[in-house]
Write a structure and sequence with these properties.
This protein is mostly beta strands. It is built from 1 helix and 9 strands; from the N terminus they run αβββββββββ.
């Protein structure tokens, strides 16, 4: 057998061996996360009063995941996620937005590669629905309301009980509050277009 054929055979054998994923176990889980996010603030009666804020966010999650014996590489999970952060426009305290999110989430999980019995690599995609609360010091207003977004990410499952994830969340709902300046209605709006970070999850 030539060197090229031998190398090809070893490569194919390695891929086949790595692809025989160990089935991830179902169970309850808890996780913590830290990330970076953006927020957009605007006033509908003043086009120049619009700014993008950026900042760090921290959160905690808990829920349940399940895998079928018939399709061991596919699973679903549902969980509650709460996170908090401060979005800043400048270093001046009044130019920041303090935000708290509470959401329920449903993700589809797909594990496509494993190495032995200790590590699986996969991806996830899902949706989150919840409530967003923004404190805007510059206007002394509270902007809150329904929130929704899409979850996407990559995850590594380590020794069944531990996993590390790189997550992203894309929000597409604005929260708003209406006030009056004299007889003129003024609507302040806050949205959270993008969030990304890393999380650790422990499965019981």
């Amino acid at each position: 057998m030539g060197i090229n054929k031998m190398a090809l055979s070893l490569a194919v054998a390695g891929v086949l061996g790595a692809s025989s994923a160990l089935a991830e176990q179902s169970g309850a889980f808890i996780g913590v996360q830290a990330g970076f996010g953006t927020s957009n603030y605007k006033i509908d009666t003043n086009p120049s009063a619009e700014a993008d804020f950026k900042g760090l966010r921290y959160g905690i999650m808990f829920g349940q995941k399940g895998f079928s014996s018939d399709y061991p590489y596919f699973g679903i999970r549902y969980y509650i996620l709460g996170d908090y952060g401060v979005y800043k426009f400048t270093d001046i305290e009044t130019f920041e937005i303090n935000t708290f999110n509470l959401s329920v989430n449903l993700d589809a999980l797909f594990n496509f590669l494993s190495f032995g019995d200790d590590f699986e690599l996969g991806v996830f995609a899902g949706v989150g629905l919840g409530y967003a609360y923004h404190k805007v010091p510059i206007s002394e207003m509270i902007v809150s309301g329904f929130d929704a977004g899409v979850n996407l990410g990559v995850r590594g499952n380590i020794a069944q009980n531990h996993s590390v994830e790189f997550y992203t969340h894309f929000g597409f709902i604005e929260q708003e509050v209406k006030t009056y300046a004299g007889f003129i209605p003024v609507t302040e709006k806050v949205s959270q277009p993008y969030q990304a970070g890393i999380r650790y999850v422990y499965t019981f």
